[in-house]
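User: Some background: our group keeps a shared notebook of sequences we're curious about, and every so often someone picks one and asks for a predicted structure to add to the entry. Today it's my turn. The entry only has the sequence so far, pasted here. Could you supply the structure so I can complete it?
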Amino acid sequence: MATAVTDREPRLNDGFTFYFASWYKKSPYFSRTVEAGCTSWDLYNHMLIPTLYDDDVAEYWHLLEHVTLWDVAVERQVEIAGPDAARFTQLLTPRDLSACEVGQCKYVVLCAPDGGIVNDPILLRLGQDRFWLSLADSDALLYALGVQAFAGLDVEIREPDVSPLQVQGPKSKPLIRKLFGDVIADLRYYRCAEAQLDGISLVVSRTGWSGEVGYELYLRDAARGTELWDRVMSAGEEFRIRAIAPSDQRRMEAGIFNYGNDMDVTNNPFEVTGLERLVELDNDHRVVARAALQRVAAEGVRKKLVGVRLGGAPLTMWLEDFCSRRRSSPSPSGIPPRQSPRHRRARLHDGGMGTLTGHLLLSNASLFDPSFRRTVVLIGHHDEEGAVGVVLNRPFEVTVDEAVPSLAELVREGEALFHGGPVQPEAAVVVVDFEDPSEASVVAFDSIGFLAEEADRVDLGTIRRARVFAGYSGWGPGQLEAELEEEAWIVTPARREDVFHDEPERLWDAVLTRLGPGYAILRTMPFDPSAN
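Assistant: Of course. Here's the predicted structure to add to the notebook entry:
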């Protein structure tokens, strides 16, 4: 319903009439999204993007439990090609691209001369002299053309005929295997390759905006959009595929940024927690923003975007519409729990809380946050300022050697990379059993500690065993205490064999078994209690 212009005080978040004007582009999948039940669109890079089909909570849970298809043709590409393509692309970003291989993807920030973030695309290197920048919502093509005018480099810059789909969710890998075979399905994280599907030309990357297992299918001929959509949906029937909109809730839980919402051109990377690592200027590369970012690095920043966890009733959909009137949710996303079964109260030290450094947190039945269902978290540090730790029992299918080659020598051959938590999932955290615990930057308990960021300086002879985690888990002041009051966690001292368990997927069950028969009901409870 449209809000009349005569309304003195239009109600917040009221509907209004929106015309699909001819200057708003429709994606090659638009007709299929309408047929799939899309009810809401937004504008992104001058193109319509689905924002809702029927129920955002239902869409969220389908993403977490099955496989979903997203129309993200709005991720327009900037193609940089020519003899000087690598040098020109490096001009745009402070991230060091010198080691970026053909077939590799990187998350980068494009920065203006004053250091402001113009865009935060995924970079795909398709050839020695050809790059794609898969854009967030800003006119980065125009910025690149402006830089080209003064760069004096031999490059061609254009927007190619490329329209991505995302296939996201735990069943995306078997679906991609069915469609493309093992080579594409087994792509390493942040890798890409050219592919064909029934004569449809594509680039497929092992990336996504969800924090779940996922892929992006870059269609290279818009005229074949409905064919591609239909083939993916048909192959996905056995995996319960459905079309959904990109999940803002899930990307927030995963710590993924949304350009224009979390930051824009008025922010530099040092003002956004997690983007500082993308400024790599210890080299002689020519970078447009070098001088400005070096100055900010030396002087520091006056403001900083950080993650917070707020209490209160759950929110859904667009949080900014309600932030002045309601409080946010007990979980990072605002997704309401499905059910709250009875559960055993966790006890701590028979008295005061004290520090939980060196303890395990085992998720209790009341913890519905999907980032922590049936998890075992090692608390590496806990004091009045908060707590940090890593999830011990969620290995990825990818190995450390494949994902973080520079850290491969620290772990056993073929050792998996682990999902440490939802905070900064692209950062590597190393937990070590030290011969000499004084080598640790932080000691959790006994000889178990965390490796300093200067991992290349460590004496390998001092390391008995190590594991590498992508991201970590964090709590602000009082947050962990509040969750314990809500009986979300069971606490027990950690053991070395817990940290390096030979079957990490069984760790939650193994520790509960060790705690005694009082936890038998919890151990045998189904993952989704509502199915009981």
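Suggested note for the entry: The longest strand covers residues 463-475. The first helix runs from residue 30 to 35.
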